[in-house]
Each structure stands twice: as C-alpha cells, then as structure tokens.
Amino acid sequence: MTELATYNFAYLDEQTKRMIRRAILKAIAIPGYQVPFASREMPMPYGWGTGGVQVTAAVIGPNDMLKVIDQGADDTTNAVSIRAFFQKVSNVRVTTKTTEATIIQTRHRIPETALQAGQTLVYQVPIPEPLRFLEPRETETRKMHALEEYGLMHVKLYEDIARHGRIATTYAYPVKVEGRYVMDPSPTPKFDNPKMHQSPALQLFGAGREKRIYAIPPYTEVVSLDFEDHPFEIQTFSEPCALCGAKGSYLDEVILDDKGGSMFVCSDTDFCEDRQAEGNGDHLSANPAQAAANPAEAAE
Amino acid sequence: MSDIPLLKVKALSKFYGSRIGCQNVAFELWPGEVLAVVGESGSGKTTLLDCLATRLAPSTGSVEYRMRDGQFRDLYRMSEAERRFLMRTDWGFVHQNPADGLRMSVSAGANVGERLMAVGDRHYGKIRATATDWLGRVEIAADRIDDQPRAFSGGMRQRLQIARNLVTNPRLIFMDEPTGGLDVSVQARLLDLLRGLVSDLGLAAIVVTHDLAVARLLSHRMMVMKDGHIVETGLTDRVLDDPQAPYTQLLVSSILQV
C-alpha cells in the first residue's frame, strides 16, 4: 500500500472534485435539500457506496485521517474495501478510532462515541427521496419539497400506527431539518436519529445512483417526525452488550450455532473494543457462546 | 344563499392548438348552488372543469374565487402554493375513476386523514376519530377503516373519495361524472348521499355529466355545452322540461325511456 497508484489524488479528477464540492457547498447552505450532481462511474457497483465515496474523495486532503464503517463495524467487506481504496488512491492515514478520525464514511450507522467539531461524517445513501414510496413521480416530490407539502409523510406514519399500533418504521426514519426540509437520514436505525440533532460535526450525504447530495451543517436542528399522541421513540434493548456490557448502545444479534443460540453485541466495533480494553465485560467476552447459552449466569 | 357569488368565470377559453376545447364561457356560481354541465362526449365539459379547478391552464379569460376572507382572487394570478393549498382545503375534486382520486395502497382511514395531516393535524387519535366519523357519513362500515381501497367495491371507492374530499369542510366541489361506471342501484344510493351532503353542508358544486337524470336529481341550474360553446343555460327543470335551443331539444328527446 505504500506505492501510490497512478491516479489523481483521491481517484477523481480535479474538475469533478470541484463540481462535487460546489454541490456540497450548496447542500450545506440549504440544510436537508437534495442537490443534484453529476455522479461519476466509480470502480465499484451502485449500491456499494458510490455516492459516499465521491463525497469523501471531494473533501479528503493529505492530512486527513479516514475511518470507514459498515453497519457500525470497521472490519466488514464494504468498510475494508473502501478504506483500502482511499489508502491506495490518496495515501491518507486511516484509523478505526472514532475519536482520531477527521472524516468518517459510514453505511447505516452513526458511531456511538459523540462526534466532535471538525469531524465530517459521510453517509452512503441508497434512496435520498423520503417521499419516494408514497409518491413515485420525482417531478411531484420535488414540487412537494418546494412547497413544503409534507402531509403525505405523516400518512405513512399513520399507516404504521393503524397496522401495528405504533410507528413501526425503524430505519430511514424521516426527519425535518431546521424546520424546513423533510429528509431521509439514509437507512440508519432510528436509534441514531437523536445523534444528528445539534451535532457539532458536519454531516454529508451522497447518493451515487440517484445523483443527489445533501447535508446537515454543524449545530442544526434535526427533528424526527411523529404524532402528538404517538411521539418518536428509539429502540431499547433488554440486555447489555454481551462483549462489553454497554447499556444504551445499538446492538446486533449474532447467531452462534444452529440450535437457536445467539448473543447481542454492540454494532459499533470501535466503541465495543474500547470498552473491553477499559476492562468492561471481560468475563463474558472470554467465552461468549457459554455466556449466551446461560443468560442467568451472564447477568451475574 | 348569499347574493355574492362564490366563483366568477369570465370569457374563459381553452384552445388545443387550432382546436377549441371550450370558448368564451362565462357564468357565476353562488354558495350552496349545484351547477350541472351537460353535453355529449367531446363537447368540452371536462376541459371546462379542468380549467376551473386549476388542473389545466386556460388560454384566455379569468376565474375569480371568493376566498374565506371575502376577497375575490383570480386563480391564475395566485402562486402555485396558494392554488394547491386551496385545492386541498377549500375545494374538492371527485374523479370519475376513484383510483385517480384515492391512494390505492394506503388504508381508507389514511385516505380520509391525508388532507387533515396536510393542513397540519398531528394527533393520531383525533385524525382517526374524524376519519371514522366521515366513513360513517358516507355509509362505509367503521371496521373497514384499515382496509385498502383495493378491497372496496366501485361504489364504496366512490363514496370513500367523496369522504376524502369533504373532510376539510370545503365550500366548493368539482365532480367529473361522479356516477359513471356504477350500476343503477348503486348510482341511486350515491346520488341520494350526495344530495344529502350537499344540502347539509351547504356545498357549492359543479357537476360534469352526460347523464341528464343525474343532472336533474343533483343540480339547481344547468349549462348545456356543444362543440366548446354554451348553447343553453337555465334552471334545471326549465331546461329539461322546456328546452329552447335546438341542440338541447335533441339532447332531451334522446333520453331512452324505460
């Protein structure tokens, strides 16, 4: 990885980067508004983060420290490939530590550790239009955004309550940004929605296939939509993380065997490893299979 | 009825290239009045209705509407946002085919509640109570509230569409062949329901139909169109019982007797 491939810095040519930066600046100026941009072919298929990669390539500099996560984890295929890609084409330093990173590209999670001013979070977005499944015509949804006609968004939430007795949307939960635009926060669990509100970090969203960029500038109001008698709630977990014992972090269910055994662990691997290094929940991580098979013991 | 009109239409024309959609239409509509527009296919009825309901921009002429504050506003000088707001609060539009006016993939309750949510209602319980009330008023059983309109019969869909339009207490309703495609017994019940609602709520309505019986039952006043022009206008009973224009005489005499 030491030898820099014969690409322009960060893969994209400078004109393309300028074009994307202009879209990003416009997106920051109009929080939550989807700015069209001339999305390029990237050396990866659509749906694997081409939007996020283009945004990262446009904002990254030689002094940046990059972290890439996929569903919260640093060690999954998508995260490893994109990290290796940027090492190869821009030779930037990379890390798995949330606190050390200046740019974090993410798919479907926001790190548990609170982000700081100066950090940039880049989201990979599959479908930027929150009204897409309610109103298939793009001409119409753009008009609805322009005229602030968002009654339809609540129709979806109404349907949830009518069918399930509660708002059953658990990811890509629509938010209103700075009291104006309704925005899809990408398929992050709604657990992460409150982290977007008044975040000191800059949040950029790139949708490569759909050719849209949008943004939440630092310290911006982000409100999850709800009803007065059915307020917004985040997921809660009855057990702590089986590895680090964290309560109040977002957990993934990991299947352990083919007998129905499973355990719940933090989806944010960096957060979980940090806590284990600090000595939390060591006795469990020593033998997670046994711990999960015997929850009563694990609780002690 | 008040003596100030609700809608003033002046010299309204719509051309499709060199063809005439409707030409030089002028009339006034008063609050609580039901006006029927009749004529054969291609006579410009639907073009006229679309021009009035801001679904189609007219070529010339003006349509002025008396807003709730009593001021007359030209519809085509309003901003699009104002027009759309008017369309979903003070007005209703009942399509001939209910699938055009309903969201077929969301429940009946959400269909009725959509306008309420669009004007800022954010209390689920209240929205649902209002929706239940309106389903009752259009004779749809309360236990069908969570069913999708796909599961409804044609007549029920049409009644659901009417409930969806009336939930914000509009003052003016446009109807395009509201009973088209329904069998006669369902038509009769729907007409009965519409007549009741229009008189109870004091709605003004413009009903486009080719069915003179529908016009006779629903409307107070009637306009007969032919080739984009109004050939006769007057009280419904007068026009149907004593037609003056030759075309109206032809139309009235063409009614099949059972």
TrEMBL record, chain A:
Keyword Metal-binding part of the UniProt annotation: yes
GO BP terms in the entry: organic phosphonate catabolic process
Native source organism of the sequence: Phyllobacterium bourgognense
Region (Disordered): 277-300
Biased composition (Low complexity): 286-300
EC number(s) stated in the UniProt entry for this protein: 4.7.1.1
Coiled coil: none
Protein family per UniProt: Belongs to the PhnJ family.
Superkingdom field: Bacteria
Single GO term (MF): alpha-D-ribose 1-methylphosphonate 5-phosphate C-P-lyase activity
Spans traversing the lipid bilayer: none
Name used for this protein in its record: Alpha-D-ribose 1-methylphosphonate 5-phosphate C-P lyase
Annotated catalysed reactions: alpha-D-ribose 1-methylphosphonate 5-phosphate + AH2 + S-adenosyl-L-methionine = alpha-D-ribose 1,2-cyclic phosphate 5-phosphate + methane + 5'-deoxyadenosine + L-methionine + A + H(+)
Any Pfam family the entry gives: PhnJ
TrEMBL record, chain B:
GO biological-process terms attached to the record: organic phosphonate catabolic process
Transmembrane region(s): none
Similarity comment text for this entry: Belongs to the ABC transporter superfamily.
CDD domains linked: ABC_NikE_OppD_transporters (cd03257)
Molecular function in Gene Ontology: ATP binding; ATP hydrolysis activity
Keyword Cytoplasm: no
Keyword ATP-binding annotated: yes
InterPro entries, alphabetized: AAA+_ATPase, ABC_transporter-like_ATP-bd, ABC_transporter-like_CS, P-loop_NTPase, PhnK
SUPFAM superfamilies assigned: P-loop containing nucleoside triphosphate hydrolases
Annotated ranges, domain ABC transporter: 7-252
Organism the protein comes from: Phyllobacterium bourgognense
Keywords from the UniProt entry: ATP-binding, Nucleotide-binding
Protein name: Putative phosphonate transport system ATP-binding protein
